[in-house]
Design a protein that fits this description.
With 410 residues, this protein is α/β, with parallel strands linked by helices. The protein contains 14 helices and 11 strands. β8, α8 and β9 form a beta-alpha-beta unit. It starts with a strand and ends in a 33-residue tail after the last helix.
Length: 410
């Protein structure tokens, strides 16, 4: 099993009355709430945390793309990955990812991700999310009903740009270019592994299965609620006569490790409440733009009882509520090991992405959580699946003796 340290980079200083005073953490959250001097420290702390996770032996460190929000301050994950490429050596750089329908032309993604793959020595995982309604429809003005069609055209162009050895022309519905000639080309052949976030859209799930990409279920509802989404995915895989290889699926889980149950609450309860009740305070009208989700996907979600908005998690809930529902796994190392084993088996996933920093968690506490997980939890679970399945969705980096060694900073 592989473990990936995922950072959202939330803004940690939203006021206590944020939900009462502001309509949403996304789209229309006033930018005057952001203090650039404070942001300077926060960004560098967050990069320190990602680098620390790499040093502690996590298989991957993950960044992603969001716009006009205080929930995740990464409008350009490629900038973060470029910084990390020079400061890490063995860890995969999981850019999960670039919202490819937002790039005009999408060849920009092909170029930048190829640069990241080459600079890092073949350590890039290329994530291609459709993107949230908040980011795509409101932040960048994309038409909801054509978003997925534009996404798929962009995908096809990027793959061809990575694999076609000669210049070619593209005359698509959304992109027309006389010359497509990608320099540099990716180091990994035929291209970096592709992971696609899927939160329950049946069209996305079917497309991922057909393409044989990794399906990354990025959910804050926790592993108990995620079972219906993952069951849907594995049912599709069976229908398509594909192997139920757990490495073809990943899942995101909030986790807090401490010395005792009581200490876990003392350590992480405040950050959990901040995350769920401020960072997920999203106005429903932004979260589900008409046309963004198909009628078929909406019907399936309703039948399964899945939340239709991130704000479904932001009500007046307690630490104990989040633990009981599985939104958060927290406790002693032994308790966390037991729960993650249950998670992995029930969802059949081989890639676990973790928020070991969430909400307004301090740098010191994040380091503690990361260290305890790496030293006490991860070693007990690493061999899960290894004797049964091959991970075909993983990076193929250069051998250590082939990699460049950046000069030390003086």
């Amino acid at each position: 099993m592989k473990f990936h340290w995922f950072h959202l980079m939330p803004y940690p200083d939203l006021p206590e009355d944020f939900r009462e005073k502001y309509s949403s953490v996304w789209v229309d959250v006033p930018s005057h709430l952001f203090d650039p001097e404070r942001g300077h420290v926060v960004y560098n702390d967050y990069l320190d945390e990602l680098e620390y996770a790499a040093d502690m032996g996590f298989d991957g460190i993950c960044v992603n793309e969001h716009h006009q929000n205080a929930y995740g301050m990464m409008p350009s994950p490629n900038l973060m990955a470029a910084s990390l490429a020079r400061r890490t050596s063995n860890t995969a750089l999981v850019v999960l990812g670039n919202s490819i329908a937002l790039y005009n032309p999408p060849t920009r993604v092909a170029e930048e991700m190829a640069m990241l793959d080459v600079i890092s020595g073949g350590r890039l995982v290329a994530g291609f999310p459709v993107g949230t309604s908040m980011d795509t429809n409101f932040g960048y003005g994309e038409t909801p009903i054509t978003l997925r069609e534009k996404y798929r055209e962009a995908h096809d162009l990027i793959i061809k740009a990575w694999t076609e050895p000669e210049p070619f022309a593209i005359n698509g519905k959304y992109t027309q270019l006389r010359y497509v000639n990608t320099w540099p080309r990716p180091l990994q052949k035929p291209h970096p592994p592709i992971w696609v976030p899927g939160g329950g859209s049946i069209e996305t799930t079917e497309w991922i299965a057909d393409k044989d990409y990794l399906m990354a279920n990025l959910s804050y509802a926790g592993y108990k609620a995620a079972k219906s989404v993952m069951d849907q995915y594995w049912d599709l895989m069976r229908q398509k006569e594909k192997d139920p290889n757990p490495y073809s699926a990943g899942f995101l889980q909030l986790i807090g490790v401490s010395e005792t149950e009581a200490q876990a609450k003392e350590d992480y309860a405040e950050a959990a409440l901040y995350f769920y009740q401020r960072c997920l305070h999203v106005n429903q009208m932004y979260n589900n733009t008409p046309g963004y989700r198909s009628l078929r996907s909406m019907e399936l979600s309703m039948k399964a009882g899945r939340p239709s908005s991130l704000s479904a998690f932001s009500g007046e809930q307690t630490w104990e509520d989040y633990l009981e529902k599985g939104n958060i796994i927290a406790g002693t190392p032994e308790q966390v090991i037991e729960k993650i084993r249950e998670l992995a088996k029930s969802l059949n996933i081989g890639h676990l992405m973790m928020l070991l920093q969430f909400g307004n968690m301090s740098k010191d506490l994040t380091m503690k959580n990361t260290r305890l997980f790496a030293e006490k939890v991860m070693p007990e679970l690493k061999d899960l699946w290894d004797d049964e399945w091959e991970d075909k969705w993983w990076i193929h980096p250069l051998a250590a003796e082939q990699t460049a060694q950046p000069a030390a900073v003086k």
